[in-house]
Design goal:
The chain has 2 domains: 201 residues, UDP-n-acetylglucosamine1-carboxyvinyl-transferase, Chain; 202 residues, Enolpyruvate transferase domain (UDP-n-acetylglucosamine1-carboxyvinyl-transferase, Chain, Alpha-beta prism), CATH 3.65.10. The protein contains 12 helices and 23 strands. Helix 1 runs parallel beside helix 3 and helix 2 packs parallel to helix 3. The longest helix is centred in the middle third of the chain and has 14 residues.
Length: 424
């Protein structure tokens, strides 16, 4: 469809949502399973555009992968420290995790590999990761010499890892891309990184590595050391529900009143975005943890926040669409790096909020949003799944919200609009 109109709820929310698996965990675990020797099974995996690109890339690299979509199960045979294919031309669409993580993963290959993506991916910087890999001795460069994909990698027999630095201000994925293959490298990794954008995602990577049998990871401030010469262990991995995807329905409870139960979310989640529930609690929501789920209940009214969102940048759009309905202004700051995500999210949010008649000021590092009553409008989504899903939640309260290019949600949540319709 070219666009879809969201119908406002006519009653208080009372719903239970089975949130799909985490994209961030699924793509990390896929690589860890590839690095293990033997058969692994990934349960409750997310099957979406981003994970399909990762699966396709691994298949092109020679890995056997069996996908059971109805059961959200992936089975694959890992090859330990070796990559089966001697060369490959890989296309990852708009998947930032696939682009960055594969760049590090391919250090284990023997031959020439090329990584490319869609038009937006060719605008997303990767130079800082390339510089870090070059310091480790990898022959890697941007094909257009502009600091963005396509990326060409020429692998030899002598890559050992070692000591390097990386600027992670634009993306924590640069750090995770180095961490995942590091235990396989003979000399391991001694990494100094600058910038703390998305630090919880780095913690997620480390915790998943430890669950997969990796030991000897030392973290001190902005330094990480990983012992080399190790092996990932094959096994059965259970993917948590995606805390980022859950945020839209948790926000709906605050926005519309009533309550929503979100299944398969854990208080001890490895995902940093689980902390968005604490943000909603600050605004006035009631959050109750149960065994295997969490219940979020909205209040009659809620307040705005002045908040640093750099530890949960993907939650900025969700908070931004709540802000006009708050009783006080909302100031979101320290997220300048989200201008380099699937869209320039700061500018996209400012533009679409203004289209709705909301008072908004765009800052270099964030947004200031005034309380107001949004008007009906057709929302441009910039081929960005988080812009589409966030403004769709606004449509549960504001009549006449139409979401253009709704299919872009397939990047991380193909059945989003089906679940949204189930709310009412």
């Amino acid at each position: 469809m070219d666009q879809i109109e969201i119908k406002p709820l006519l009653r208080k929310l009372a719903a239970t949502i089975q949130v799909p698996g985490s994209k961030s965990i699924t793509n990390r675990v896929l690589l860890m399973a590839a690095l293990a020797q033997g058969r692994s099974v990934i349960e409750s995996a997310l099957i979406s555009d981003d994970t399909r690109y990762m699966i396709s890339a691994l298949q092109h690299l020679g890995y056997r992968i069996a996908l059971d979509e109805p059961e959200n199960r992936i089975e694959m045979d890992g090859h330990g420290a070796t990559i089966p294919a001697a060369a490959a031309d890989l296309f990852v669409g708009g998947s930032g995790t696939a682009m960055r993580f594969l760049a590090g993963f391919l250090t284990l290959g023997k031959g020439r590999f090329r990584l490319d993506g869609n038009s937006r991916m060719r605008q997303r910087p990767i130079a800082d990761l390339i510089d870090a890999l070059r310091r480790l001795g990898l022959a890697i460069n941007c094909e257009a010499n502009n600091g963005c994909p396509p990326v060409v990698i020429q692998c030899g027999e002598d890559f050992r890892g070692g000591e390097t630095v990386v600027d992670a201000r634009l993306s924590s994925q640069f750090v995770s891309a180095l961490l995942i293959p590091a235990p396989i490298w003979k000399d391991g990794l001694h990494l100094k990184f600058t910038g703390y954008a998305g630090l919880p995602f780095i913690t997620m990577t480390i915790r998943l590595m430890e669950r997969a049998g990796i030991r000897g990871i030392l973290v001190e401030n902005n330094f990480i050391s990983v012992a080399g010469g190790q092996s990932y262990q094959p096994g059965c991995f259970e993917v948590e529900a995606d805390a980022s995807s859950a945020s839209y329905f948790a926000a709906a409870a605050l926005l519309c009143g009533g309550k929503v139960e979100l299944k398969n979310l854990r208080r001890d989640s490895v995902q940093g975005d689980i902390n968005f529930l604490s943000v909603l609690k600050q605004m006035g929501a009631a959050v109750t943890w149960r065994r295997g789920s969490v219940v979020v209940e909205g209040a009659a009214q809620f307040g705005g926040l002045d908040i640093d969102m750099h530890t949960m940048p993907d939650m900025v759009p969700t908070l931004a669409v709540l802000a006009p309905f708050a009783t006080s202004p909302t100031r979101i700051h320290n997220v300048a790096f989200i201008r380099h995500h699937e869209s320039d999210r700061i500018h996209a949010l400012a533009t679409e909020l203004a289209r709705l008649g909301v008072g908004v000021v765009e800052h270099e590092d964030g947004l200031e949003i005034q309380p107001g009553r949004p008007n009906a409008a057709a929302i441009e989504t910039y081929d960005d799944h988080r812009i589409a899903m966030s403004f769709a939640i606004m449509g549960l309260r504001t009549p006449g919200i139409r979401i253009k290019n709704p299919g872009c949600v397939s990047k991380t949540y193909p059945h989003f609009f089906v679940d949204l319709a189930a709310l009412g």
